Amino acid sequence: MKHVAVDVLVIGSGAAGLTAAIEARRAKVSVLLITKSLVGRANCSSVAMGTFRVAHESDAIQQHYHATLEAGRFLNNPQLVQFLVTNAQSAIQDIKALGVPLAIEPFRTTIAKKRPAGIYLTEALVNEAQRSGVKVLERTMAIDLCIQVNRCLGVIAFNVDSGELFTISAKATILATGGFAQLYSRNDNPPRIVGDGLVLAFEAGAELQDLEFVQFVPMFIDSGIPRIPILDWLIESTKHLVPEGPVFTAQGTPVLDTYGLMQQPILRDNLIVAIERELSKKRAPIDYVLLDLTKVSPAEIENCFELEYQKQAIRPLLNVLTTKCLRIASGAHYTMGGLRINATSATTIEGLYGAGEVTGGVHGANRLGGNALTEILVFGKLAGQNATNYARLQKSSKPDKWSLRAVKDRIKGFREVKPKAITGSQLKAAVQVTVSKYCRAVRSQQGLKRGIEMLHKITEYHLPRVYAENYRELALAIEAQSMLQLAKVVFKCALARRESRGSHFRIDYPTCDDTNWRKTVVIRKENEQPKVRFAKINEAV
User: Fold this and answer.
1) What is the pLDDT of residues 345-391, one digit of tens each?
2) Which of 45, 63, 78, 72 is nearest to 108 (CA)?
3) pLDDT tens readout for residues 286-337
4) Interhelix angle 196-204/471-496, nearest 10 degrees
5) Which of 360, 468, 483, 510 reaches 20 to 30 Å from 102, CA-CA?
6) Cα–Cα dist 356/362, whole Å
């Protein structure tokens, strides 16, 4: 079997992974980046709108800090937030030096290209990674982390085109695999963003946190209307143009006025919770509300915005917004929870680091707009630096034969022909339907428990029937199995938090309880079972 040895291994080629790889290579260590797709493609960074939340003056930096905590409903790790806001400006200077065109406005910096503009960021980072000597293996997926006495020694990997299975020894490994919005049927993430990096870490014994917090955004669902994440600030800016606000149910109930959002700032979490709470009252199977700005002129809408990037995003939609009542519905956009990391980006497994959406702690219960791209640059750089420092002190070790045997048995199981076989894509769809029905933004104990029952049935009746006819189907089957594993963990965390906070609303516990629940839900695998514990927000990792 082929074996590769490297100082620093990076898994994932979004902006977080690329930034980490570049930073490690600058320190003159050997760096290998593996990616399931083509490098820099098929990740959330490449399809992002291109906005960074950045403050430049000391007072503004502290405003950024407090705004991030407030948006996160004070469940963020303050140490990680402070590092984010104080290093945001230097991260922006780094990409400016790579030739990314930027437009700077108060509190925000945007990529000065047509939206979505994220591809200009990832292309610049790919070019710099290649120039600096980062080695890349495309269409390669990590199947298993190799762990020895709570230390990560590398991975077992699989080439999607050739089917080759091989091992990679790494003195330090960085996970930058993104979030898990693909657990939901309606989402705006690329199809390969399934949370498999989290499952790798969970199966290896790493602690995860805050998985109950999934950021949903209102999306246009009418055909021909792009699903771009602008509706929260569009509705906030235009809500006073229409009496009782421009959002109504199909029966005519004004959503904003009913839930007090005419008097308080609209963020993604409170808007989605209001929409979902109102929809949960209806017996009819309708999962959308209506945006009605037809009595407003295009000029009136555009005049609601001061920032140029907002005007540019809204101009192509002005005609349809003012002539047609549009359907909007919630879709999964971002996941706040993930790997539990410390101030060096290290996880609870020695030699394993995390960067970007795969990690938790920065955003708390709800992410402030613009912080996602800022975070991946700031913490990608941090992970690259500290993984390099760790790698310099280590010796390389090969994975043991037992890890290889388990992976080979897993692959063999998927490749065996079965009666009434299903594909990995069909398994994925079954998981998505269950998660979308029982773990929406508005949840209940009854629904969550029913969802867990359904996931166990899928494990018992669907998973054993998955057959992969070729290597591409094998990759999809492995991803779908990871999604099934992760969904169970997400449900367990949502069941554990018995309050409503941020993007997590429990019908049976409808209030935010700072006295008992201003703490983090932490989960890890013990004795082959997920075990939940609760941690203080600033508890050392």
Assistant:
1) 999 999 999 999 999 999 999 999 999 999 999 999 999 999 999 99
2) 63
3) 889 999 999 999 999 999 998 787 888 899 999 999 999 999 999 999 999 9
4) 70
5) 360
6) 10
- Let me know: does 33 contact 129? Beta carbons within 8 Å: yes
Residue type, 183: L
Three-state secondary structure call for residue 208: strand
Tokens matching residue 18 = 């690329």
Check whether 461 has a pLDDT greater than 80.
Answer: yes
d(CA 56, CA 87): 10
43: tokens are 């990740």
* Model confidence pTM above 0.85: yes
Rounded distance, CA 481 to CA 474, Å? 11
For residue 10 the two structure tokens come to: 């990076």
Please state, in angstroms and rounded to a whole number, the distance separating the CA atoms of residues 203 and 485: 9
pLDDT tens digit sequence for 174-213: 999 999 999 999 999 999 999 999 999 999 999 999 999 9
Q: Any residues with CB less than 8 A from the CB of 2 and at least 6 apart, and which? A: 164, 166, 167
Asked if 443 and 435 count as a contact pair (C-beta separation under 8 A), the reply is no
Pair type for strands 208-209 and 338-339: antiparallel
| Cα-to-chain-centroid distance, residue 387 | 22
